From TrEMBL, chain B:
It is a multi-pass membrane protein. It comes from the Bacteria. InterPro entries: ABC_transporter_permease, MetI-like, MetI-like_sf. Pfam families: BPD_transp_1. GO terms for cellular component: plasma membrane. This is Sugar ABC transporter permease. Keywords: Cell membrane, Membrane, Transmembrane, Transmembrane helix, Transport. It is found in: Cell membrane. Residues 69-282 form the ABC transmembrane type-1 domain. The chain crosses the membrane at residues 73-95, 107-127, 169-188, 209-230, 258-283. GO terms for biological process: transmembrane transport.
C-alpha cells in the first residue's frame, strides 16, 4: 500500500518535472499556428522540421550555437587550468600567507557577482572588450568555488609523492603536469562539466556585455527572439530545444560527476 | 624559497583574474555608488561628481526601489520555504526503501536544474498563456475560469515563484538526499520498536539530524533567490504594472538602460547589505537554537 503511494508520488513528481521539457520537444515539431489551438495539442498532427530550418536558415541560430560553444569551451579550458594550478598551490605548496590569502578568498564567496558588474562593464569598456567574446570570457577565467573544490580534493594527495619526485630531480611544472594532474582527473571532469554548464546557461553578464547580435550566446539570442516572436510558440520551442538539448545531453552522459561535484561543493563546508 | 616562488607562479593567473575582474570591481562599485556616474560621465569623465550618500538617500525615497525590494522579499519569503518543502519531500520519497528505479527518478527530477532559464521560461510562458495555455485549459475542465497568469499583477509573481520552484528544487533535493542517507538506520529502527509513528520519526529523528544540511541549503537558496533577474526579464519584462521588478531588475534597468551607473551601484550595494544581514541573522538564529 505505502509502496504504491510512494512510487505513485514519484511518478507524479517526475511527470511534472519532465512534462514541460517533453512538450517543448513536441511543440517544436508542430506547423506554425498549431500550438495556438484548443484544446492544446499534445502531439504534432503533421510533424515538421520547418521551425528548425527557419531558425538556422533565417534567424541565425547556427551562429549563436557556435558562439555559445566557443565561449563556454574557452571559459571551461582557461578556468580549469587556472583553478587547478591555484587549488593545487593552496593545497600542497608551502608559502607565507597561504592561510590568510585563502581565507580572504573564501570571504569573497558571500559577495554576489552582480555587485561587480557595473564597474566591470566600465573596465571592459575602457579596455575595448565590450561586445566581444573576450568580454564574456574574462571574468569567468577563475572562480573561488573552483579553486576551493580543487584544493579540497588535492589535499588528499600524499606529500611523499611530491617529495619523491623532487628528490628525483623533477621540476615543479613537470610534477604538476605528470603527477598531480592525472591524480586530479576526477575533480577535473567534475569541475569541467560544472563550468561548462554554468557558462552555457549564464544570462545576465552576456546580456550586459554583448551589445551586438553577432556575438550573442544562445540564451541572449533566445530572449531577444522571443520578444520579436511572442506569438510563434512553435518557433520559440524549437529555439528552446536547441538551447537546452546540448547541456541536457552532457548532463545525462556525465551525471555521476556532476552530482558528485554538487555535493563536494555544498556539503563540505 | 623555491617552493615559495613556484607557489606564487601557480597562484598568479587565478588571483590576477579574481583581483582584476572581481575584487577591484567590487571595491570600485562602492566608490561608484558615491558618484553621479551617468551617460555624461560615460562620455567624458570630467562630468563625474562626488555625491557621497546621495544615491542611497534618493533610493530610499523612491517608491520603485521599495516595491522592487518588496517583490524580491515576496519571492524569497514564499519561494524559499516552498522550494525547501518540495526538495525535502522529493528527497524523502527517493530515499524511501520502497521506492523503485531510483536513479531514473532522480535524474528526471533533477533535469530542470541543468536547463537554461531563458529557454524553459519560454516554455512556461506558453503553458501559462491565458488563451492557449495548458494551465488554463486544465482549470477550465474543472470549471475554473481562466487566470491571466502573467498579465495580472496579482498572479505574475506567484507564477514566477512556481516556475522557480520547478526549475530549482532538484538541486536541493540532491543535497537533502545525501543528508538523509547519512542518518543511521538504527535510529529509525529503535524508534519503530518504541512504537513511534512516521510523523514522530520525521519530527524527532529526520528533522534534527538534517538541521545542519537544512541551514546550509536554506542559506544557499535564500542568497540565490535574492538574485532574481532572468525569470522576470524573460517572462514578464518586469510587468504587469512593474509587479515583477526585482532589485536586480531595477539595477539592470537603472544601469544598463538609463546608464545611471552610480545609482545602479547603490542598488547593488544595498542588495548585498540586505543579503548579508539576512544570512547573518539566519546563522545566528540557528546557533542560538543549537545552544538552547
Amino acid at each position: 500500500m505505502s509502496k504504491a503511494v510512494i512510487n505513485g508520488l514519484l511518478i507524479g513528481g517526475t511527470a511534472v518535472a519532465v512534462f514541460p521539457l517533453l512538450w517543448m520537444l513536441s511543440v517544436s515539431f508542430m506547423v506554425p499556428g498549431e500550438a495556438s489551438s484548443l484544446p492544446p495539442p499534445l502531439w504534432p498532427s503533421r510533424p515538421t522540421l520547418g521551425n528548425y530550418h527557419e531558425l538556422f536558415a533565417r534567424a541565425g541560430m547556427g551562429r549563436y550555437l557556435l558562439n555559445s560553444l566557443l565561449v563556454s569551451s574557452v571559459i571551461t579550458v582557461l578556468s580549469l587550468a587556472f583553478n587547478l594550478m591555484a587549488g593545487y598551490a593552496f593545497a600542497k605548496l608551502r608559502f607565507a600567507g597561504r592561510e590568510r590569502v585563502f581565507q580572504a578568498l573564501l570571504g569573497g564567496l558571500v559577495i554576489p557577482a552582480q555587485v561587480a558588474m557595473l564597474p566591470l562593464f566600465l573596465l571592459l569598456k575602457y579596455l575595448g572588450l565590450v561586445n566581444s567574446y573576450a568580454g564574456v570570457v574574462a571574468p569567468a577565467m577563475a572562480t573561488i568555488f573552483g579553486i576551493f573544490l580543487v584544493r579540497q580534493y588535492a589535499r588528499g594527495i600524499p606529500d611523499d609523492l611530491i617529495e619523491a619526485a623532487r628528490i628525483d630531480g623533477a621540476g615543479e611544472w613537470r610534477i604538476f603536469v605528470q603527477i598531480i594532474m592525472p591524480l586530479l582527473t576526477p575533480i577535473m571532469v567534475t569541475l569541467a562539466i560544472f563550468t561548462f554548464l554554468t557558462a552555457w546557461n549564464d544570462f545576465m553578464w552576456p546580456l550586459i556585455v554583448l551589445t551586438g547580435q553577432e556575438h550573442y550566446t544562445l540564451p541572449i539570442a533566445l530572449a531577444s527572439l522571443s520578444r520579436e516572436h511572442v506569438q510563434d510558440s512553435e518557433l520559440m520551442m524549437a529555439g528552446s530545444v536547441v538551447t537546452v538539448l546540448p547541456v541536457l545531453v552532457l548532463f545525462l552522459a556525465l551525471q555521476r560527476y556532476y552530482l558528485q561535484g554538487l555535493l563536494l561543493g555544498s556539503v563540505k563546508g | 624559497m623555491n617552493t615559495q616562488r613556484t607557489a606564487w607562479l601557480f597562484l598568479t593567473p587565478a588571483l590576477l583574474v579574481l583581483a582584476l575582474f572581481f575584487l577591484i570591481p567590487v571595491l570600485a562599485a562602492f566608490a561608484l555608488s558615491l558618484t553621479d556616474f551617468d551617460l555624461y560621465a560615460l562620455a567624458d569623465l570630467r562630468n563625474l561628481r562626488f555625491v557621497a550618500l546621495g544615491n542611497y538617500w534618493e533610493l530610499l525615497h523612491r517608491p520603485l526601489f521599495w516595491s522592487a525590494l518588496g517583490h524580491t522579499l515576496y519571492f524569497v519569503v514564499i519561494g524559499v520555504p516552498l522550494s525547501m518543502v518540495v526538495s525535502l519531500g522529493a528527497a524523502m520519497l527517493l530515499n524511501s526503501p520502497l521506492a523503485r528505479m531510483k536513479p531514473l527518478f532522480r535524474t528526471a527530477l533533477f533535469a530542470p536544474v541543468v536547463t537554461t532559464v531563458v529557454a524553459v521560461a519560454v516554455i512556461w510562458r506558453y503553458l501559462f498563456n491565458t488563451k492557449y495555455g495548458l494551465a488554463n485549459y486544465s482549470l477550465g475542465l474543472i470549471g475554473i475560469s481562466p487566470v491571466d497568469w502573467l498579465g495580472d499583477p496579482r498572479w505574475a509573481m506567484p507564477t514566477i515563484i512556481l516556475f522557480a520552484v520547478w526549475k530549482n528544487f532538484g538541486y536541493n533535493m540532491i543535497i537533502f538526499l545525501a543528508g538523509l542517507q547519512a542518518i543511521p538506520a538504527d535510529l529509525y529502527e529503535a524508534a519503530r520498536i518504541d512504537g513511534a509513528s512516521p510523523w514522530r520519526q520525521f519530527r524527532h529523528i529526520t528533522l534534527p539530524m538534517l538541521a545542519p544540511t537544512m541551514l546550509m541549503v536554506s542559506i544557499l537558496t535564500v542568497s540565490g533567490y535574492f538574485q532574481l533577474f532572468a525569470e522576470p526579464f524573460v517572462m514578464t519584462e518586469g510587468g504587469p504594472l512593474q509587479s515583477t521588478v526585482s532589485v536586480l531588475y531595477l539595477m539592470y534597468e537603472e544601469g544598463f538602460k538609463w546608464w545611471n551607473l552610480g545609482s545602479a551601484s547603490a542598488v547593488a550595494f544595498l542588495l548585498f547589505l540586505i543579503m548579508f544581514a539576512v544570512t547573518a541573522v539566519m546563522l545566528r538564529a540557528s546557533r542560538q537554537r543549537g545552544e538552547a
